[in-house]
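Action item from last week, closing it out:
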Amino acid sequence: MSVLSVLLRFGREYGIAFVIGLSQLDGASKYTLCEPTYHWIGNQSDAESIFVARRTLVLPPEADVMFPALLPGQAIFRESQGNWAYPFLIQTDFIPHGRNIANIVADPHPWTPAADLDQLPDVWDAIKKLKDDHLRDSFRRAKEGVYKPQIPKRAHQLLHAIATNPWAPGRVLWQATGTVPPPAVQKGVRHALATLGLAESVEGRLGSANVLVYRLTQAGATFLGCAPPSHQGRGEILHQHICHWIELCAKHEHREAHCEFTLPGGYATDVVWRAEDHLWDAFEVCDSATDNLSSHLQKLRACCAVRKITIVCLQKRFLQDLQRKLQDDPVVCDLGQRLTWALAEPYLRKAFR
């Protein structure tokens, strides 16, 4: 084999690239002409070189008149296994030979160094805004009947789980789908459902851990073709969930329980459990607002159908602060043993054990 053929052969074997320049194509072997990945053929004037150039670039016979007409800097280029399967004319910058000894320096190409998206907050915010606008527009057109939005598969599974078991925490909902994805995926699904307006969510602190709860919106119920959960109750999302956890605990014990129950005298409390024939155990959930707690307790104390009152708090520290705040309250002192305190976390564990 010739020297060029040996170079090309070992270059392919060891991953070495070679740039080969030939002044006449008719003197090179077929292996040298066929092996290169890129062919860059400029002006050719002799008949043999024109014939070889046309055969190498797979051009029709009428292309022979094209090679002698190529100007300086012009060439016919073809790439094997490239994005474009056909040869095309290229124009390169022509720099005439200098008549002096000094080197001619070409103008540098503009270059911008790469940067991570975390270093470009404006770009990152623009990308998220563009994505959110696209999701909102998709859901708007879906409500108009143009088409049904294609939400991610995991988001669709979670949405069905929320509709089936609306008062379960996020951990239980993901287990119901059959697969618990990584936290990053869960965060993306939560963001997608919130952006489309299909489900609301809130994260609260219960005991020593956080709990994430969801609530299906009217748009989400319309998307699934089901009715939204009834008797959602008053208060925020977490407050409603805690009330239903307390209700579920009573039902596990085969006891009658109700949320937003109106006691004799027209006073509504968060949750009640049936104690005896005409008596109830009342529950008041304190997740954020506590200013009107004393008035609630006063009305419950005056109700003859209430046997016991339980105040349910989210965290032990919050419960202790509330006890210190109300320790000298006349209503609390008068209730005595009828007033008990509890945390919400045990009810959550018991409701979904």
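Closing note: The radius of gyration is 38 Å.
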